[in-house]
Design goal:
Elements: H1 2-26, H2 47-52, H3 58-61, H4 65-69, E1 79-85, H5 90-100, H6 105-118, E2 129-132, H7 137-143, H8 149-159, E3 162-163, E4 168-170, H9 182-188, E5 193-195, E6 205-213, H10 217-226, E7 233-242
Parallel strand pairs: 1-7, 2-3, 2-6, 6-7
Antiparallel strand pairs: 4-5
Helix pairs in contact: 6-8
Length: 243
């Protein structure tokens, strides 16, 4: 009797393995950092790229370098980023794949990584809600997704808190800032953000998440909008920060 039930079960396992092998044959998984083929035990990026990732470790080392970027501009509880961003480096390739090639697994990968670390750090255990830097509705329609969502969702999951995409809206469409020089980024950042009526966030600790921090102007603008909510505290977490 046991064997009669066991055989179909094994049959379906074999079928699943065949399907996976066929998919890998015709649609092989490639590294999101260098585009080389991934091995059977590799996910998202290859081991070579993983070892080359320029980690900041701000949150692990209690380094306030990123927090100091906003000194005198906006009051932050905590501030961290996963990676250092430099032109023509592996992080630029990852961000390009995320934003323009539809590879949302980049955000998933970095969000899981950071989330697992933040949940062990006392300073982040009182976060109440994770809020992404939003896209303007026209850019969201064109791209089809907010590149920050997977990153923020994984962090919220790790911290066991709400992920809120409703409270903050972008009211002016702007072009990407990453490849402009620092002066042009600062003077040309006319992004404006507004908040919806959300009484449930009064007195809460918000973790604001973004993909790349350059001058910090976008984060500052978002934070100033969120600070209109009574009694809130703000921390930030980004995938990367430019050198």
């Amino acid at each position: 009797m046991w064997r009669n039930y066991r055989l179909p079960y094994l049959y379906f396992i074999l079928i699943d393995e065949m399907i996976i092998n066929l998919l890998n044959l015709f649609f092989p998984k490639v590294c999101l950092g260098c585009n080389s083929y991934l091995g059977d035990k590799e996910s998202y990026i290859c081991m070579s790229c993983r070892h080359q990732l320029p980690l900041t470790n701000f949150h692990l080392d209690q380094n306030e370098a990123l927090k100091n970027v906003f000194f005198g501009r906006v009051k932050l509880e905590q501030a961290t980023a996963v990676l250092h961003f430099s032109k023509k480096g592996i992080v630029q390739q990852l961000m390009h794949n995320l934003k323009y090639k539809g590879h949302q697994d980049v955000g998933l990968f970095l969000g899981k990584w950071l989330g697992e670390e933040l949940k062990t750090i006392e300073a982040y255990q009182n976060v109440d809600v994770v809020v992404p830097v939003p896209l303007h509705r026209s850019k969201l329609r064109k791209r089809g997704y907010n590149q920050v969502d997977k990153f923020g969702q994984e962090i919220a999951k790790a911290l066991n808190v709400e992920y809120n995409t409703e409270v903050l809206q972008k009211t002016m469409s702007t072009k990407t800032q990453v490849f402009k020089d620092r002066l042009l980024r600062t003077s040309g950042n006319a992004a404006t953000f507004s908040i919806s009526e959300n009484l449930t966030l009064r007195g809460k600790h918000i973790l604001l998440v973004d993909d790349i921090i350059t001058t910090g102007a976008t984060i500052e603008s978002c934070a100033n909008a969120l600070l209109k909510i009574e009694g809130i505290k703000i921390s930030i977490a980004a995938m990367s920060i430019t050198d």
